[in-house]
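Input chain follows. Return structure tokens only.
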Amino acid sequence: FFRSEYFIGNESTPNKLLISFYYGFTTFLIASINIFVFSYLVKPEKEGNWKVWNEIILYVIHFITISVAMHFLSFYVMEKEMTFTGIFKSIFTTTLIGLIPVSIYIINEQKKLFKKHYELANKITDYGNDSEMKSTSEHINIEGQSHAIFDLLYFESNKNYLNIYLVDGRMFTIRLTIKEMENLLTLHTQFIRCHRAYIVNANKITSVEGNAQGLKLFFFEKSSFVPVSRSYISKVDHVIRPNE
């Protein structure tokens, strides 16, 4: 499966299985490095802007870096001549072969996710409209100040700080991580961790929209919203629709 193009027309090449392993391992290694670097560069606040073409670009980066690595590997293992023309040819061939099927696959998957999240968003919104908004007189102590649970809208991570948004439009910042705030809110089940950077008050959600990236939770007739990343969708759905 990982046979190099240099094997073609040269069936007498010794140690084919071992050399094929070199190519397969290099492919896996370069792809893993790409994914690690890319996930580090794509910060949580950028996830909401993630588009189909971003995904395609990531695969093109895979094609280019793997092609270059394969060319260098062929130079050392197969003792082939290394030229810029050969490198560009390798990149062009790999990208041309892989781009069309990968693009079709990504677009198809994005359509499936959009449909799935769109339908789920409608169900959550309908459930919320049929339910009465819960009011509570409970308070929580944050940084020495007492705040009514009903006044808290959502929390936004800002590195080692936390932005706290209130229903009256005010916002203040405290020195606290989102994980520490999540622990403080353990007993208040109406607060949901919906993203690496957000915790929301489920009782304040007025509508939900879905797209390929995940869900968006809206407050006050869509004047503001918070994203829900894919890994938190099932948790948010369970909290808002516990009996479904």
